[in-house]
Amino acid sequence: MNREPEFSRFYKILGAEPGCSWREVRQAYRRQAQSWHPDRFPESSPERAEAEKKFVRINRAYQVLGAYWKQFGELPGQ
């Protein structure tokens, strides 16, 4: 089973290029997390609800790529 399309989705969520280094993934994660952190938006605004959804996706993408990196010592696509 080819999982490359799934991993490319995670890179896209973070705004990183497939095949980049772990350092670049971390930097991309931090940029996205700072931009979409729900605390940046008013409590009951539609923007906050959207930010919460995006923040969950950003964290999930980072967790999946991080778990792969920890297990195999490289990122998918390298």
Explain what you see.
This protein is 68% helix and 0% strand. The mean pLDDT is 92. The chain has 78 residues and is mainly α. Helix 1 (4-14) packs across helix 3 (46-72). It is elongated. The longest helix has 27 residues, at 46-72. It has one domain (4-72): Orthogonal Bundle (Helix Hairpins). The two termini are 18 Å apart. The chain has helices at residues 4-14, 22-36, 46-72. It has 3 helices and no strands.
CATH class: Mainly Alpha
* Estimated helix fraction: 55-70%
Strand content: under 5%
Number of domains: 1
Main beta sheet, described? none
CATH superfamily name? DnaJ domain
The succession of helices and strands, N to C, reads HHH
Question: Unreliable stretches, pLDDT < 50, 5 or more residues?
Answer: none
Global morphology = elongated
Radius of gyration: 14 Å
Mean pLDDT: 92
CATH architecture: Orthogonal Bundle
Determine the structural class based on helices, strands and strand pairing: mainly alpha
- From the N-terminal CA to the C-terminal CA, the straight-line distance is 18 Å
DSSP strand count: 0
| Number of helical stretches of at least 4 residues | 3
CATH topology: Helix Hairpins
